[in-house]
Specification:
Blueprint lengths: L3 H7 L3 H21 L5 E10 L7 H8 L2 E5 L6 E5 L6 H9 L4 E10 L2 H5 L4 E4 L8 H9 L1 H7 L6 E6 L10 H4 L5 E2 L28 H12 L4 E6 L7 E2 H13 L4 E4 L8 H12 L3 E5 L24 E7 L17 E4 L3 E5 L3 E5 L2 H18 L5 H10 L22 H5 L6
Parallel strand pairs: 6-8, 6-10, 7-8, 10-11, 11-12, 12-13
Antiparallel strand pairs: 1-3, 1-4, 2-3, 4-9, 5-15, 14-15
Helix pairs in contact: 1-2, 9-12, 10-11, 12-13
Length: about 425
């Protein structure tokens, strides 16, 4: 681009100059488009072997010239493969889809917080925690948290938060993190700190723009279930991007390390069979999974929250949309038959790095309220499986037809009511 500038300066005439500027603008746009991680990791494919045919990963690699980068933990048939130089991911996946030795092949797609995609920002950062005038209080009142906490504060439960990490010594959260387990799947160590590194991966001029997201989400879990333990698992980088293979590993890790609830304030427009299978395994093993419905103000399915992409079902996967203080759909919130429930997600004040607090809006903020609700239900009704916990979330929700007649039928069971979900006769 710099070599083109002298040429542009040397020519005369308004038309030629305009053409030169257009050329430079196009080059800049192209450079911008080429920057960032894209939809999936280049030259990586996730495959699952067909055990009936008995194929080995070595045989698959011999066919496609690939290399086994990593086996999925605890699995003998799921692998992350690296493709040879010059191989196109989509083309290879299409070829592999016709290979009977494989049950499936898919790109290693990126997921991110809905707030990353819409570029919602945290604001009002200060060392002042919420007060009775803050919007967090409207959420607490709308959810009935005061009366719910008179029944349970979530003691003896554990919520895994898969996100950008967390400030591990935040004064509001330090006790929740103690003894809960933790891991950084991005760096591969046991320090999942929510910290800045000076990165601008998507070339939008903002560095580390999703730092604080995980701390904020964990803080909302604490608001809903203050005595619950919180397991911080870092699966997203400071720009908010995470690979689905890594996220699935973290889901499996949380399920295998005594989590009762997994919070996924992240997602993608692409469905991953690996992540869907891993979540199904987690719910089958007693873990409820709450996932954000997305911030694109559309009915387009957002995964993994959308499950099969058609309709929500009581399977232990809860898709959470957002409402405002008037119990109306947030103007950014997704909706559809695949949504399970809605919760306050607008102007929520919660913990933020630097031992501070901030406001943030998004379905990412609504989701941890429901994760906390699930922890409280588990604490009171420990014999319930994830489907049973989800049923209590559903059957106790308040209908939204009076306040949101247009979208009410597309916001699942309605407005989550934590207090009502703990009542003995909630689902009778």
């Amino acid at each position: 681009m710099s070599s083109a500038l002298p040429k542009c300066r040397a020519v005369t005439g308004a038309l030629v100059l305009a053409l030169c500027l257009l050329m430079l603008s196009g080059a800049a746009s192209s450079a911008q488009a080429d920057c960032g991680p894209g939809a999936f990791v280049p030259r990586q494919v996730i495959v699952k072997l067909n055990p009936i045919l008995g194929a080995t990963v070595q045989q698959i690699n011999a066919t496609y010239g690939s290399t086994a980068l990593e086996a999925f933990p605890g699995s003998t048939d799921v692998y992350l493969l690296g493709l040879p130089a010059g191989s196109g991911v989509r083309e290879t996946v299409r070829q592999m889809s016709d290979d009977s030795r494989l049950l499936y092949a898919e790109p290693n797609t990126f997921a991110q917080p809905p707030e990353g995609d819409a570029r919602h920002r945290a604001w009002g950062v200060s060392d002042v925690a919420s007060t009775s005038q803050d919007s967090q209080e409207y959420a607490a009142q709308a959810l009935g948290l005061e009366s719910a906490h008179a029944i349970s504060r979530g003691g003896g439960t554990k919520v895994a938060v898969l996100d950008t990490g967390a400030q591990l010594d935040h004064p509001t959260l330090e006790a929740n993190f103690e003894g809960a387990g933790r891991y950084d799947f991005v760096e591969g160590d046991r320090n999942p700190s929510d910290r800045r590194v000076g990165r601008d991966a998507d070339c939008d001029g903002d560095k580390d723009e999703m730092v604080g997201h995980g701390t904020h989400v964990a803080g909302i879990v604490d608001i809903a279930a203050p005595a619950a333990k919180i397991m911080p698992l870092r699966v997203l980088d400071t720009e908010g991007y995470g690979e689905v293979f890594t996220i699935a590993k973290a889901v499996s890790f949380a399920a295998g390390n005594d989590a009762d609830v997994i919070n996924l304030s992240l997602g993608s427009p692409s469905r991953s069979k690996l992540l869907q299978e891993t979540i199904k395994d987690a719910t089958a093993n007693g873990v409820l999974v709450a996932a954000a419905a997305g911030n694109s103000n559309s009915s387009v399915a957002h995964y993994p929250a959308a499950g099969n992409g058609v309709a929500a079902s009581a399977d232990g996967l809860v898709a959470v949309s957002s409402v405002n203080m008037y119990a109306q759909k947030s103007n950014f919130a997704n909706y559809g038959s695949w949504v399970t429930v809605a919760a306050p997600g607008q102007d929520i004040r919660s913990a933020f790095p630097g031992s501070q607090y901030a406001y943030w809006s998004g379905t990412s903020m609504a989701t941890p309220f429901v994760s906390g609700q699930a922890a409280l239900i588990h604490a009171v009704y420990g014999s319930l499986d994830p489907a049973g916990v989800e049923e209590r979330i559903r059957c106790s929700a308040r209908p939204l037809f009076a306040t949101e007649p247009f979208y009410a039928a597309m916001l699942g069971a309605g407005h989550a009511d934590v207090s009502a979900s703990l009542a003995p006769g909630a689902c009778s």
